[in-house]
Design a protein that fits this description.
Helices cover about 20% and strands about 10% of the residues. The chain is an alpha+beta fold and about 80 residues long. The chain has a two-stranded antiparallel ribbon. Strand 1 (about 30-35) and strand 2 (about 35-40) form a beta hairpin. The N and C termini lie far apart (about 70 Å). The mean pLDDT is about 75.
Length: about 80
Amino acid sequence: MNVTEKVKVLPNPDAYREQCVEKCMGCNRMYSDENIGDVCISYPSPASVQRLGCPMQSNKEVEKKNVKKVNPIKASKRARRKGLR
C-alpha cells in the first residue's frame, strides 16, 4: 500500500507577489521565497486580504459560542403550562 503525501503547490514564480503581513505569521499557506521573503500561496497581495480577514488563514482560532438552542414548540408548551397554574 503506497502512502502518498500532499504536495505543496507553489505559485508561479514569474507572478508579482508581496510579502506577508504580521497577521499571516504561522499560517501553513506561506512559503519562503529567496528574493522576496515570506509569500502567501493563496493571494498575491496578503495585506489587502487581511483588511477584512483572510478566509484561508489556518492560524486563527474559531470562537464557538455556547448558545443553547431552544425548541420553539417545547417553549410554547412550557409557557402555556406556566400560564394555567
